[in-house]
């Protein structure tokens, strides 16, 4: 589409950039060369001035994060690239690595230089067997060319990079869980503070950045902070890759300026809803971000605008559901994912994710009770912001947002005692289920006492 | 009978050396992949040998191994078929593909490995290739836009002793070979 700037996907149609020579022919590693000619502080200032914000979900200013890494602590400093991409619906990191691995390696080297670290790890999602091979080859090639190892490009700066593969655990995308996993433990999150910048890998100062974030860095070093800051909205500059999937004509990764309206992404790039059907619901940033609906078609896709609309930009993973898709079933599936992936450390998450997926399952199957809606809402409320990490918050997102926008659909499931989309369930003519322990004990008494009431 | 041959133990030492001195525990996942590549699963003996290599107790290694779904502590097929049924794939028919995979493998309700030990079918969470939904991985090689019919064909191909051509990249010969690549000891050309 005319006018849409492509920065980190500009070479995606050109397979010649996968080997290092092809990447060099396109100006590759010039950003690293420039960075090495400046002081680390100047590199950090450049990235700060660009306004680049982390693309892994949180949107924290990248240069500021770099400046938090202390120097002269007497400990080594580590740089870690988070390539544990597993947020449902998200697949831009994988394609960035498969199509232009050296872009990531160059960004990683610049980041490591900026924080004066001499060892970098790439934590590669285990299931990404092929992207891992692509990276192994690229690291070997780049090292042979002198972009990693001793005295890089004659600068006196040394950097080794190690590819580390995970083994199937969504939670390891959370940065402190990733560090636990990289240290050889179960991937369970740690309390913050201390933040990884101060006490991360091996109790040492550690910089952690997402793949997409690092891929922008070489371009900022080559073209300057002002160029980058001039693209997109002032508070969320630059471009973002949106991974579109589900019920659209042309699912795919689309790099667009931040702030591009969802309507443009859906209609002009992804070809509209599959089969010309009506849009029902969509996630702006993976299943961890609250659902939005057709009334949000004109929301601009940047951190501020999506938040103002009641959701989060997250990873930019847009999953699209149409009018024929059951929101209760979709929520049940997303909830089952969080129940499976909860690391088990915090009770609200470990227990809550399991219970909500059970309750959603019985509603979808036609065995729901009228009080189940309040039960779901209360359980979600008691997961939100009550665990060490954001997995519990993420698990609450689809439940709270689907209850907000599609309560009538839940009520229909309960009243008709079947899924109105699949028709599965006992149906309205079967006798209602026996009351159980969660039913009211006295007429008029609530089925359960919300924790918020107890605390009050 | 030891799981790791002297040659593999030597490779294990070089795997430990990828990490800073004193931080060799970081090699636990690659080492578990290494023992998995020999036995096609992680056995109690495999856990003991990894513990021995790292100076840990077997229980500490088991605690780690049981956390990660790609490390399999129970009998596992020659090939592992992972079918994504997370939302983006489910919207495009992933559940039907999962059912087709189970049917083609002849798995009764509750079973995850075929009687002949050829196939393990695993319902998978998002595999990060949602534009190609429904997505299937065979020994961690990706197969895009799979229909139930295509799924049955893929299983037939495996039954003939062939490795189906993946949509991108290379296909490991089997689950053990995939584990060897994941351990990072396989030449990847």
Please specify the SSE layout and strand pairing.
The complex is a heterodimer of chains A (456) and B (189).
Chain A: H1 20-25, H2 30-36, H3 40-50, H4 62-67, E1 78-83, H5 92-99, H6 101-114, E2 119-124, H7 129-144, E3 160-165, H8 175-182, E4 206-210, H9 211-223, H10 225-229, E5 239-246, E6 252-257, H11 262-269, E7 279-283, E8 292-293, H12 303-308, E9 317-322, H13 327-341, H14 347-364, H15 372-383, H16 391-416, H17 451-455
Parallel strand pairs in A: 1-2, 1-4, 2-3, 5-9
Antiparallel strand pairs in A: 5-6, 7-8, 7-9
Helix pairs in contact in A: 2-6, 2-9, 3-6, 5-6, 5-7, 6-9, 13-14, 13-16, 14-15, 14-16, 15-16
Chain B: H1 6-16, H2 28-39, H3 44-54, H4 58-65, E1 79-84, H5 87-90, H6 94-105, E2 119-124, E3 136-138, E4 141-143, H7 148-159, H8 175-183
Parallel strand pairs in B: 1-2
Antiparallel strand pairs in B: 1-3, 3-4
Helix pairs in contact in B: 2-3, 2-8, 3-4, 6-7
Brief digest:
Chain A is of the alpha/beta class and 456 residues long. Chain A is built from 17 helices and nine strands. Chain A has a five-stranded mixed β-sheet, covered by helices on one side. A four-stranded parallel β-sheet of chain A has the order 3-2-1-4, sandwiched between helices.
Question: Can you characterise this structure?
Answer:
The complex is a heterodimer of chains A (456) and B (189). Residues 437-447 of chain A have low confidence and may be disordered. Chain A is built from 17 helices and nine strands. Helices cover 40% and strands 11% of the residues of chain A. Chain A is an alpha/beta fold and 456 residues long. Chain A has a five-stranded mixed sheet, with helices on one face. A four-stranded parallel sheet of chain A has the order 3-2-1-4, with helices on both faces. Chain B is an alpha+beta fold and 189 residues long. Chain B is 42% helix and 10% strand. Chain B has helices at residues 6-16, 28-39, 44-54, 58-65, 87-90, 94-105, 148-159, 175-183, and strands at residues 79-84, 119-124, 136-138, 141-143. Chain B has a four-stranded mixed sheet, with helices on one face. In chain B, helix 2 packs antiparallel against helix 3 and helix 3 packs across helix 4. The longest helix of chain B has 12 residues, at 28-39. Chain B is elongated and about 50 Å long. The two termini of chain B are 32 Å apart. The interface between A and B is large, with 61 and 53 residues.
């Amino acid at each position: 589409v005319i006018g849409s700037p492509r920065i980190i996907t500009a070479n995606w149609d050109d397979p010649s950039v996968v080997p290092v020579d092809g990447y060099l022919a396109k100006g590759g590693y010039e950003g690293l060369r420039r960075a090495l000619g400046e002081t680390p502080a100047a590199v950090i200032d450049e990235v700060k001035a660009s306004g680049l914000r982390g693309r892994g979900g949180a949107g924290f200013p990248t240069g500021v994060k770099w400046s938090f890494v202390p120097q002269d602590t007497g400990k080594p400093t580590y740089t870690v690239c988070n390539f544990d991409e597993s947020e449902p619906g998200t697949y831009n990191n994988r394609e960035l690595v498969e199509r232009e691995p050296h872009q990531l390696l160059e960004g990683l080297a610049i980041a490591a230089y900026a924080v004066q670290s001499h060892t970098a790890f790439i934590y590669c999602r285990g299931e990404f067997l092929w992207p891992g091979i692509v990276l192994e080859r690229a690291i070997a090639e780049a090292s042979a060319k002198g972009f990693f190892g001793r005295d890089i490009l004659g600068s006196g700066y040394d950097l080794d990079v190690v590819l580390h593969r995970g083994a199937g655990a969504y939670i390891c995308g959370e940065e402190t869980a990733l560090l636990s996993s990289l240290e050889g433990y179960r991937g369970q999150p740690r309390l913050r503070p201390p933040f990884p910048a101060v006490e991360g890998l091996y109790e040492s100062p550690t910089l952690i950045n997402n793949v997409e974030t690092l891929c922008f860095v070489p371009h900022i070093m080559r073209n300057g902070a002002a160029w980058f800051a001039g693209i997109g909205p002032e508070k969320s500059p630059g471009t973002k890759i949106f991974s579109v999937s589900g019920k659209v004509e042309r699912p795919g990764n689309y790099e667009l300026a931040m702030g591009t309206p969802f309507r443009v992404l859906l209609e002009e790039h992804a070809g509209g809803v599959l089969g010309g059907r009506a849009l029902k619901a969509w996630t702006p940033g993976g299943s961890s971000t609250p659902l939005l609906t057709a009334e949000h078609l004109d929301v601009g896709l940047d951190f501020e605008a999506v938040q103002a609309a009641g959701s989060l930009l997250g990873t930019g993973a847009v999953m699209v559901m149409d009018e024929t898709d059951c929101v209760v079933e979709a929520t049940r599936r997303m909830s089952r994912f969080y129940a499976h992936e909860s690391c088990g450390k915090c009770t609200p998450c470990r227990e809550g994710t399991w219970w909500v997926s059970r309750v959603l399952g019985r509603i979808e199957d036609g065995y729901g009770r009228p009080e189940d809606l309040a039960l779901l809402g209360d359980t979600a409320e008691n997961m939100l912001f009550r665990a060490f990490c954001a997995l519990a918050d993420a698990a609450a997102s689809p439940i709270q947002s689907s209850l907000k926008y599609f309560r009538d659909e839940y009520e229909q499931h309960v009243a008709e005692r079947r899924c109105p989309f699949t028709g599965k369930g006992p149906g309205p003519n079967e006798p209602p289920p026996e009351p159980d322990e969660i039913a009211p004990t006295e007429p008029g008494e609530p089925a359960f006492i919300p924790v918020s009431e107890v605390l009050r | 009978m030891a799981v790791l041959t002297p040659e593999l133990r030597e490779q294990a030492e070089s795997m430990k050396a990828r990490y800073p001195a004193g931080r060799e525990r970081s090699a636990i996942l690659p080492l578990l992949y290494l023992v998995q590549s020999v036995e096609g699963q992680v056995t109690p003996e495999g856990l003991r040998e990894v513990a021995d290599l790292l100076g840990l107790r077997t229980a500490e290694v088991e605690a780690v191994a049981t956390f990660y779904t790609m490390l399999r502590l129970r009998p596992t097929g020659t090939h592992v078929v992972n079918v994504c049924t997370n939302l983006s794939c489910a919207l495009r028919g992933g559940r039907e593909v999962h059912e087709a995979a189970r049917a083609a493998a002849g798995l009764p309700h509750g079973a995850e490995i075929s009687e002949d030990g050829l196939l393990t079918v695993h319902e998978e969470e998002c595999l990060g290739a949602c534009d190609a939904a429904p997505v299937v991985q065979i020994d961690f090689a990706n197969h895009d836009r799979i229909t139930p019919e295509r799924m049955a064909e893929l299983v037939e191909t495996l039954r003939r002793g062939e490795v189906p051509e993946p949509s991108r990249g290379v296909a490991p010969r089997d689950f053990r070979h995939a584990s060897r690549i994941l351990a990072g000891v396989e030449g990847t050309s």
